[in-house]
Amino acid sequence: MLTHDAALEWIARWDRQQEGYLPDREERFTALIDAVEAAGRPDPLVIDLGCGPGSLSARLLERLPGATVVSVDADPLLLGLGRAAYPHLRFVSLDLRTPGWSDSLGLDGPADVAVSTTALHWISGSDLPKMYAELATVLRPGGLLLNGDHMETDDTAPAIARLERAVHDRETERAFAGRRPEDWRQWWDAVAADPAFAELHAERATAGADHHGSESPLLSTHVDALRDAGFTEIGPLWQRGNNRLLCAVRG
């Protein structure tokens, strides 16, 4: 059985391996939560899309204890880990690629903000417009999407795209000086070897929740899909290389 303390330790280990890809991960979290706070409500209703084990959701509630956060993911193991570590959070199991997913959120009214970090690139270019269109139906007019992720400049600006990747890569090299932490695959292999996760790991295998590569990495793919979904103002609030916090305002 997965205990509360063990879950917190595994999430700390998750955070470390994520920082191996994002040495400025905490800075991006801070910028995102700054934006939620600056939106003006002390008690915002927030949807965390692709929440994983709840790293962002937990930080958001620490800063804004009056917020209501609905944390959404399709991975049974990560949800089980989050529920054990953060019993005060509300986790919802659903797949954002399945039309009608918003019906399972159980919202009392329109949400003020949707947030996401390092998650929405897993949604294919064909599914992304439908997901954003459905998201627009549950956000209030003027509500925000704040999406932190690696989003590449497309082939229309190859020199800028190359420099953005170089900025990110050089920052990573400086941060770790050749001593990279555990990577994503090693973390999952370690989880699979821990008997406390046996049931959750079996459930994950049945659910087919594993990822098979980034499917919508281009910034333009997200911007076009958001504009088609009725979001009006779209642009970066924070950026370092190809690591961005993209903001979109629902019309």
Question: How does this model look, in words?
Answer:
Helices cover 43% and strands 21% of the residues. It is an alpha/beta fold and 251 residues long. It has one domain (4-250): Vaccinia Virus protein VP39 (Rossmann fold, 3-Layer(aba) Sandwich), CATH 3.40.50. A seven-stranded mixed beta sheet has the order 3-2-1-4-5-7-6, with helices on both faces. Helix 4 (76-85) links the parallel strand 2 (68-73) and strand 3 (90-93). The protein starts with a helix and ends with a strand. The model has no long low-confidence stretch (mean pLDDT 95). Pfam families: Methyltransf_25. Residues 46-143 form the Methyltransferase domain. GO terms for molecular function: methyltransferase activity.
Keywords, separated by commas or semicolons:
7-stranded mixed β-sheet, Rossmann fold, 251 residues, single chain, alpha/beta, 7 strands
